[in-house]
Structure formats: C-alpha cells, structure tokens
Amino acid sequence: GAAGVLQAGLIPPLVLKLETELDEIQELILGTLSNCLRVEVSEALAAGAVPVLKEKLSHPSTAIRSKAAWVLLEISSHTEGKIAVVEEEVIPVLLGLLEDTQPEVQVNSTGALMFALVTPQGRSSAMGAEAIPPLLALVAEETSKARLNAIKALTLLAELPEGRQTLLEHRDTFQRCLEDPSEAVQRAAEIAITAIDWKP
What start and end residues bound the annotated signal peptide (predicted)? Predict the structure, then answer.
C-alpha cells in the first residue's frame, strides 16, 4: 500500500517515470501517487512532482488529465503543496481545464483550485488569471458536476474586494443554486451569498 511505497523511497522514481512511460503506465503511477500523497507530500514536492503534473494537465488522454488534476488536488490539500502550486504557476493551467469537455477533468481541476485558493497568494494568482468567468460558467450550468467546487472556489475569491465587487453583479447565479437538488450545493450557495453580501 501507500506506506510501503513511501518507506521504499519510491516516490522520486515514480515522479521521474511519469515523464517517459507509456500512457497506461502513467495512469497507474498517477493513481499510486494520489494514494501516497494523502499521507505525505514533501517527498513528491522535492522530487519535482508539481511541474511534471502541470505538464500532464495538457495531456491528450482524458484519464491522464483527470488523474493529474486529482493528484494536484491531493497535493494542494497540504499547506506546502498549496505554496508549490502557486509558485509553479499551476493555477492558470487549472483554470484552462474548467472548460474541458470531460466532466471529471472539470471536477478535479475545480477541486484542486478550491484548495489552492485557500492561500492569499493562490487567490491573487487566480484573480490575475481571470478566474471568475470560467468558475461562474460552471456555477450557472445546472448539470455541472463541478458546480459545488466552483461555488466554494468563488466564495474564497469573494474575500478579495475586487472579487466581491465582480460577484455582486452575478448574485442571481448563486441565488438560482438555492433551488439545486443537491443539499450540499444549496448550502455552499448560501455561504457564497453571505460572503458576497458582506459589508466591510
């Protein structure tokens, strides 16, 4: 399992193999990495995982794009991972994937973004890359699997004055989410509206 891979010091060689292996093997490696990174992230960061994963986000294979976004989501759930994702300028690439034709790529990319935007640096990188329009498009799309993650990401951007200003104009998009069949989406939309309406 994950602990065995970690103990055997296999993370750095696995990251290296991502650059050269066949697609099917890359998928397996990404799956293994996502399990290990729940436990420990610093070894993968030291092995240069983030720039390699950033490159995989543009891979022609849906499975590889999706899994790379998932591994980045695992990485950005750790504090040091969030920093690496911002420093390697992964946020603009993740934003590009919000328009991916594959729903699971959208879900994982939006999830990774949501974690990265927890830091002030992540938020300012996202604002610089004009994150709001593609995230709003996912919130407006009623069937979007990524809707929940997109609402949560925008709630974080509402913490910035310019983010809140922009989102005030789109308050009705969140208002419509209060009718969503998913309770989690309704709750997230309520929190978003509270953040948007907040008066300093």
Answer: none
- pLDDT mean over 136-157: 96
Contacts of 92 (CB under 8 A, 6+ apart): 125, 129
| CA pair distance 35, 38, nearest whole angstrom | 6
Q: Of 153, 147, 77, 76, whose CA–CA distance to 106 is shortest?
A: 147
Backbone φ, ψ for residue 135 (5° rounding): -70, -40
Q: For residue 2, how many other CB atoms are within 10 A of its CB?
A: 15
Whose tokens are 């070894």? That residue is 43
What would the pLDDT profile of 149-180 be if each residue is shown by its tens digit? 999 999 999 999 999 999 999 999 999 999 99
Q: Is 138 helix (H, G, I), strand (E, B) or coil?
A: helix
- The answer to whether 93 touches 72, Cβ cutoff 8 Å, is no
Helix locations, the chain, DSSP H: 2-7, 11-17, 23-37, 42-46, 49-56, 62-76, 79-87, 91-96, 103-116, 120-128, 132-140, 147-157, 161-168, 171-177, 183-197
CA distance 155 to 188: 8
Are 88 and 52 contacting, i.e. CB atoms less than 8 angstroms apart? no
